[in-house]
């Protein structure tokens, strides 16, 4: 049997997430992410009335979509989808036009205020290519983040995705996200903050 | 590409440390730009008492990443946000790097650089003077961190009074346990429990064993279906991710636990054999004592529902293994030690001692003389000084006040009074602060010394093991790797040094141990003969020799390679040898010693104040620790970026009644002062409680802590974007300085306050 | 249900003011160009005086417009990448060619017009019309590709942009013609006839524009929740003053009334109407671009 191509995926098991922000900080240090912009963060939402209150922790990263609109719109192929599914930005090619930012339905892209080019979570491809797990996966104190090859039935991520009812954020948009969640609450996704202007 | 962390990993496999399956994290890293494999050095974290195993990754000379050590049995590769942000502590452009002497008036902020030689002479001269006058009790040492050489130094000096900040928080817990089992604490085996009652601990965001503990709780809940029930006045991170949250009135945990105990006893669910054989309180007598704690009374006092309390009691006693654990929510009260005894009672009732999934004695690495684990009891000392201001009460004259990694001007309850005292040159003639930053306390000092961080220094500690396998943690320097040329220029150069990496703290920062060694040398024989070491590394090398098993397995070399070492001693926790067969001493539910002191010997509930004294408009102010704030992260850009401002949590319904909206500014006043703070209206707090996160509102330490943008060698400091939101407030400015009269620990969660809308 | 966001990250706006200005300018240019071709391409003699003014304005405005793009992009020195690494699926790629071809065509077209070479003028006029439509239409596609932005992600966007471009183009033409006639012509006399017919044309284009805006809004307000939120934002939320009052009332409805009520068909009133339109359409771009990305995505 021919070995299938690699298709990476990330899975957040929200039952295990304790909202500690370690993933967000690990990412800042791994990828030298400047202040004011984020490749990953943990959205926190409260719901309900005392004493029947709830709080949700929702870690967010780039979904490294199967049909990434950010790639479609990038005029210079600076954003590309690698065969293994990682959506990558070539820092030497990006012209900083921000179109990908405008098009991404998840708001995960930003312009690096120092380098003036677009950046986002790319599943730490420099580590993954060296056979290592992304920095946030390493950091997560409760193993709430699983990363691996979805096409390898032996991988933990493939097993978890088949074993559990997994969700993706905004499936209706049609970008086919490959960042999955266990225990996603729609209220946590949809809650919006009033912006101050 | 694998690092040498193999010995320990395989050792762990054989010792039950693999209870959490598939750690599957490896400990290497690559440079993002050059893709070179980075140098990985294992060490341990000291930013909180959990003491996680760390791997420090270096790109050339530079420390670039800190992640958890996958082989460490406690944290198993996990790490918290502060642990990673430790990078900001060492690389902070605002760090204190040179010894300073005050030039203007005290607190005026004018300094001149001095040499270490000058600093040593000033200190040693003052100590010698006090010694010659026999006034060493005028030399006050205020330590925010343990250090063995500092300990030796103090012991060698003789009578210097010590303010031990780290032990303060735990005094009430320690008192409670010592009164019952002669050991200051026990470890909850939550990774194997089925029912977990959590009274006022927040291990998903802080706690003494933080990450390792959170890992096990989460694992139990999600993989094994354990139930975690949290009692807390607010919805902590732990409460949010528990199976149920029971918001209760602050300070009423004891009566809830006692009424649960009553249910367990009355329904005949208690472990009769354990109670009879292993406690000093036969069930009938205990039943008598508990009869006053009816469900109705507990419900009325705590605000919980009687049915809930009863159901949870039954669940706890039947769905075993169970464990009742507690944290600052129980102990940080003026009746903290009694509160703790009441929670502990629940555990005794179900025979929970040296039980899988229950409680066990902490295991420590044995030195030359083997000791039973429970013999390692350093119970609380009743005459301990609890705050800088207590010195006045004791009538102590102060000559020199030495604060090491301690910041009383900020951390003391009612810290405005502490500031007043420290500013008074008559009462505190000479104030020295040794710290990594110009803290609020250092700002008032006459001399400031730059401290090495935990990433720049040597240490050896037997961390409380969550797996029952005693561990010895090594802390070794990982910052400022010297180049070969620099090594060749070192005084006392040895060829051996060329092979191993040599590190030196940034700037002129020094380890406290090295400061003590130099002072001892200058003071002379009386002190220096107790400190016969060249430097801290030499001390560690000699200390390692006192662990015979470690010595035979490779000593310091192996420690340096692995970052820690396991004792070959087996995990005795889950073995057949149960508590009953190993120990004659009975659990003293009835504390005769307390009775003799005129205290009530039974676990009892005492209200913060009599119900008839309560008024409508008062709230109980709670402080809590956020996952991102702590000692090392006050000036951390990454931690502060996520959380920079602390708001006053207020129940939404109450806020509505008071006409207060989310974001409004209010004035909060207690008997010691007032604060102005913005409100967070929320459904996640008890109506009679207000809560403020501690660790905010600094007016010193650095511009990041103060939320000010500035230019520096780090481009990020120009990008600081939360100036408008500001640095928050320091709740300690209005917290009353109360202590538990029995345990002596702080009653920091008992301040009554009123709120006024501005 | 009480829901409150306690912590979240919202990254900076992707497009913002610069892009709104850029879209506005390309719209003005396209509109002016199309007017210019009315006489020279379609032989509507009445509009002959617009020919030269139109092409000059169209060219100048289009040469200014890309500067706002260059300010906007992070790496202007890499702008040449746009011509080397071509992603034909991206509207920006279409745009980079249009932004080269269209002004060149404008210049050639203008050159022949000034040379009075009618046949070639006509040919380049006809070539220019699809280019002008594309140069502005593509900006509509840029927004329409913004999948998650309810205000953008509509097939109406390109046509909406074109119609408003023509509206603003006419208004600008009116103003430029008046200024030109009043200050720079030999007779110093304003061609009132021309202005009035331009006014009438503008009035009907405004009707068409309002129809499109209304269609868009009606569908938005019964569509999915994000779309409803977007409708709310411009009808009752933070952007409603700009959208309702500035863009539509001042920028379209009042000018329309001025233009169709005979009593107001005087030069001063038409000038007022044109100024209102020129400003109003700017805020139309602003509301669409900035308002469109105002709501957080998550
Ligand atoms: N991130 C982080 N971790 C830390 C530290 C840090 O500063 N930051 N510090 C370390 C240190 S020094 C210590 S001592 C430990 C402290 O660890 P803890 O003592 O466990 O922490 P606290 O946040 O003080 O209190 C825990 C909880 O008690 C709740 N509480 C308050 N009053 C009551 C009450 O009356 N009843 C009940 N049931 N709950 C109540 C609070 O809401 C809070 O959620 O953490 C250690 N770990
Ligand atoms: N209201 C309220 N107040 C409290 C508490 C509470 O629960 N509520 N908690 C109390 C408790 S439990 C504690 S333990 C105390 C804490 O009180 P302290 O022990 O005084 O803690 P900090 O001021 O946080 O830390 C002291 C200094 O250590 C420095 N530092 C940090 N990390 C390192 C390092 O690795 N190496 C070196 N060399 N220096 C370092 C920092 O610059 C900091 O200024 O606060 C107490 N205060
Ligand atoms: S590190 Fe893990 S537990 Fe912490 S917030 Fe991120 S996903 Fe959640
Ligand atoms: S989440 Fe956004 S940036 Fe990431 S691949 Fe999908 S569309 Fe692109
Ligand atoms: S900002 Fe960079 S990556 Fe994004 S679309 Fe433009 S060129 Fe492509
Ligand atoms: S995978 Fe890497 S880039 Fe993505 S969030 Fe995690 S650490 Fe950041
Ligand atoms: S819990 Fe965090 S701060 Fe505490 S020792 Fe572990 S990594 Fe360090
Ligand atoms: Mo503490």
The largest chain-to-chain contact, stated as pair and per-chain residue counts, equals: A-B, 50 and 64 residues
Overall shape of chain B: it is globular
Radius of gyration of chain C: 20 Å
Percentage of residues in helical conformation of chain C: over 70%
Mean pLDDT of chain B: 89
Count up the helices of chain C.
10
Number of separate helices of chain B? 30
Notes on the protein architecture:
The complex is a heterotrimer of chains A (197), B (758) and C (298). By secondary structure, chain A is α+β, with helices and mostly antiparallel strands. In chain A, 21% of the residues lie in helices and 23% in strands. Chain A has a four-stranded mixed beta sheet, covered by helices on one side. Chain A has a two-stranded antiparallel ribbon with strand order 2-3. Chain B contains 30 helices and 25 strands. A seven-stranded mixed beta sheet of chain B has the order 5-4-16-15-14-6-7. Chain B has a six-stranded mixed beta sheet with strand order 21-23-22-25-20-24. Chain B has a four-stranded parallel beta sheet with strand order 11-10-9-12. In chain B, helix 12 packs across helix 13. The longest helix of chain B is centred in the first third of the chain and has 17 residues, at 116-132. The relative contact order of chain B is 0.15. Residues 1-24, 370-377 and 575-580 of chain B have low confidence and may be disordered. Chain C has 298 residues and is mainly alpha-helical. Chain C has two domains: 14-145, Up-down Bundle (Formate dehydrogenase/DMSO reductase fold), CATH 1.20.1630; 148-298. Chain C is 74% helix and 2% strand. Chain C is built from ten helices and one strand; from the N terminus they run E-H-H-H-H-H-H-H-H-H-H. In chain C, helix 1 (16-40) packs across helix 10. Chain C is globular, with a radius of gyration of 20 Å. Chain C starts with a strand and ends in a 6-residue tail after the last helix. The model of chain C has no long low-confidence stretch (mean pLDDT 92). Chains A and C meet through strand 2, helix 2, helix 3, strand 6 and helix 7 of A and strand 1, helix 3 and helix 4 of C. Strand 2 of chain A pairs antiparallel with strand 1 of chain C. One ligand MGD is lined by residues 46-47, 89, 144, 165-166, 169, 328, 332, 405-407, 410-411, 435-437, 439, 451-454, 623, 631-632, 694, 731-732, 735, 748 of chain B. One iron/sulfur cluster binds at residues 62-65, 68-70, 87, 104, 106, 108-109, 120, 175 of chain A.
């Amino acid at each position: 049997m021919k070995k299938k191509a690699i298709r990476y995926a990330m899975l957040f098991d929200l039952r295990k997430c304790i909202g500690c922000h370690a993933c967000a900080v690990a990412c800042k240090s791994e990828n030298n992410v400047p202040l004011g912009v984020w490749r990953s963060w943990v959205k926190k939402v409260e719901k309900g009335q005392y004493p029947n209150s709830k709080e949700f922790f929702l870690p967010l990263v780039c979904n490294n979509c199967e049909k990434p609109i950010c790639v479609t719109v990038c005029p210079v192929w600076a954003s590309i989808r690698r065969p293994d599914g990682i959506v990558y930005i070539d820092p030497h090619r990006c012209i900083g036009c921000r179109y990908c930012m405008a098009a991404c339905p998840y708001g995960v892209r930003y312009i690096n205020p120092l380098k003036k080019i677009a950046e986002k979570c790319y599943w730490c491809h420099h580590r993954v290519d060296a056979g290592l797990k992304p920095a946030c996966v390493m950091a997560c104190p409760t193993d709430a983040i699983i990363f691996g090859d979805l096409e390898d039935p032996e991988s933990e991520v493939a097993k978890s995705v088949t074993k559990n009812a997994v969700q993706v954020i905004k499936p209706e948009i049609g970008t086919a996200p490959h960042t999955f969640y266990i225990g996603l609450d729609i209220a946590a996704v949809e809650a919006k903050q009033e912006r101050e202007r | 590409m694998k690092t040498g962390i193999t010995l320990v990993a395989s050792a762990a496999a054989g010792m039950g440390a693999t209870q959490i399956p598939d750690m599957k994290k490896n400990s290497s890293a690559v440079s993002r730009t050059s893709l070179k494999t980075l140098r990985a050095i294992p060490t341990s974290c000291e930013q909180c008492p959990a003491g996680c195993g760390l791997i420090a990754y270096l790109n050339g000379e530079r420390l670039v990443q800190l992640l958890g050590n996958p082989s460490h049995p406690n944290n198993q590769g996990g790490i918290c946000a502060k642990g990673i942000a430790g990078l900001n502590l060492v690389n902070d452009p605002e760090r204190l790097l040179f010894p300073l002497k005050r030039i203007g008036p005290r607190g005026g902020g004018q300094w001149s650089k001095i040499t270490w030689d000058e600093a040593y002479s000033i200190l040693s001269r003052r100590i010698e003077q006090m010694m010659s006058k026999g006034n060493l009790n005028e030399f006050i040492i205020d330590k925010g961190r343990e250090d063995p050489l500092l300990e030796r130094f103090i012991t060698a000096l003789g009578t210097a009074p010590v303010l031990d900040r780290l032990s303060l928080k735990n005094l009430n817990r320690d008192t409670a346990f010592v009164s019952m089992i002669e050991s200051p604490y026990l470890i909850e085996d939550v990774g194997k429990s089925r029912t977990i009652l959590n009274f006022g601990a927040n291990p998903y965001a802080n706690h003494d064993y933080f990450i390792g503990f959170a890992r096990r709780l989460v694992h139990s809940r999600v993989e094994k279906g354990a139930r975690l029930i949290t009692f807390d006045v607010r919805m902590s991170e732990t409460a949010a991710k528990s199976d149920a949250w029971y918001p209760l009135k602050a300070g009423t945990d004891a009566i809830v636990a006692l009424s649960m105990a009553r249910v367990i006893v009355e329904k005949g669910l208690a472990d009769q054999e354990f109670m009879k054989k292993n406690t000093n309180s036969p069930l009938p007598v205990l039943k008598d004592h508990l009869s006053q704690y009816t469900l109705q009374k507990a419900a009325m006092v705590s605000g919980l529902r009687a049915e809930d309390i009863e159901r949870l009691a039954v669940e706890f006693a039947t769905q075993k293994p169970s464990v009742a654990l507690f944290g600052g929510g129980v102990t940080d009260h003026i009746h903290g030690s009694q509160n703790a005894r009441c929670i502990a009672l629940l555990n005794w009732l179900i025979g929970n001692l040296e039980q899988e999934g229950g409680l066990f004695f902490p295991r420590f690495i044995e030195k030359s003389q083997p000791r039973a684990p429970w013999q390692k009891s350093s119970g609380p000392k009743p005459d301990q000084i609890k705050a800088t201001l207590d010195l006045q009460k004791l009538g102590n004259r102060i000559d020199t006040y030495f604060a090491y990694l301690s910041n009383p001007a900020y951390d003391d309850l009612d810290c405005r009074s502490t500031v007043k005292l420290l500013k008074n040159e008559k009462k505190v003639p000479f104030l020295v602060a040794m710290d990594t930053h110009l803290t609020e306390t250092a700002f008032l000092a006459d001399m400031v010394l730059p401290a090495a961080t935990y990433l720049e220094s040597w240490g050896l500690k037997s961390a409380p093991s969550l797996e029952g396998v005693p561990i010895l943690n090594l802390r070794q320097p990982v910052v400022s790797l010297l180049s070969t040329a620099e090594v060749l220029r070192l005084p006392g150069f040895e060829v051996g040094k060329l092979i191993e990496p040599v590190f030196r703290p940034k700037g002129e920062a020094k380890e406290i141990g090295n400061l003590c060694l130099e002072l001892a040398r200058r003071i002379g024989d009386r002190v220096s003969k107790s400190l016969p070491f060249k430097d801290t590394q030499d001390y560690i090398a000699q200390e390692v020799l006192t662990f015979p098993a470690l010595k035979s397995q490779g000593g310091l070399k192996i420690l340096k390679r692995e970052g820690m070492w396991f004792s070959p001693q087996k995990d005795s926790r889950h073995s057949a040898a149960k508590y009953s067969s190993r120990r004659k001493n009975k659990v003293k539910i009835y504390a005769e010693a307390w009775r003799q002191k005129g205290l009530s010997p039974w676990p009892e509930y005492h209200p913060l104040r009599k119900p008839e004294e309560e008024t409508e408009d008062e709230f109980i102010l709670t402080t809590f620790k956020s996952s991102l704030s702590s000692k090392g992260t006050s000036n951390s850009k990454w931690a502060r970026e996520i959380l920079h401002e602390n708001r006053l949590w207020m129940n939404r319904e109450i806020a509505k009644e008071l006409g207060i909206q989310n974001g409004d500014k209010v004035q909060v006043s207690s008997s010691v002062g007032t604060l102005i703070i913005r409100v967070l209206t929320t459904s996640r707090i008890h109506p009679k409680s207000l809560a403020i996160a501690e660790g905010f509102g600094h007016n010193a330490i650095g511009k990041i802590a103060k939320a000010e943008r500035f230019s520096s060698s780090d481009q990020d400091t120009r990008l600081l974007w939360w100036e408008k939101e500001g640095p928050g407030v320091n709740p300690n400015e209005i917290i009353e300085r109360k202590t538990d009269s029995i345990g002596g620990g702080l009653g920091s969660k008992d301040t009554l306050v009123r709120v006024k809308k501005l | 249900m009480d829901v409150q966001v306690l912590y979240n990250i919202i990254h900076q706006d992707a497009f913002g003011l610069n892009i709104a200005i850029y879209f506005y300018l390309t719209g003005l240019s396209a509109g002016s160009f199309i007017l210019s071709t009315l006489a020279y391409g379609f032989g509507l003699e009445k509009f002959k005086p617009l020919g030269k003014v139109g092409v000059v304005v169209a060219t100048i405005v289009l040469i200014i417009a890309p500067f706002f793009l260059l300010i906007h992009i992070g790496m202007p020195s890499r702008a040449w990448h746009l011509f080397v690494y071509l992603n034909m699926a991206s509207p920006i790629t279409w745009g980079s060619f249009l932004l080269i071809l269209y002004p060149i065509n404008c210049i050639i077209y203008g050159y022949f017009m000034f040379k009075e070479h009618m046949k070639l003028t006509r040919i380049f006029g006809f070539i220019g019309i699809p280019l002008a439509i594309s140069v502005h239409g593509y900006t509509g596609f840029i927004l329409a590709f913004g999948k998650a932005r309810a205000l953008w992600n509509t097939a109406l966007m390109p046509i909406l942009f074109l119609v408003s471009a023509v509206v603003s183009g006419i208004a600008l033409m009116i103003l430029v013609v008046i200024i030109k006639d009043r200050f720079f012509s030999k007779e110093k006399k304003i061609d009132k006839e021309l202005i009035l017919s331009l006014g009438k044309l503008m009035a009907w284009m405004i009707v068409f524009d309002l129809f499109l805006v209304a269609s868009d809004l009606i569908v938005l307000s019964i569509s999915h929740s994000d779309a409803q939120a977007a409708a709310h934002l411009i009808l009752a939320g933070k952007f409603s003053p700009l959208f309702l009052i500035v863009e539509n009332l001042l920028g379209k409805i009042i000018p329309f009334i001025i233009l169709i009520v005979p009593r107001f068909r005087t030069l001063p009133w038409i000038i007022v109407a044109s100024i209102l339109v020129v400003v109003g359409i700017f805020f139309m771009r602003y509301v669409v671009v900035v308002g469109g990305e105002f709501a957080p995505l998550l």
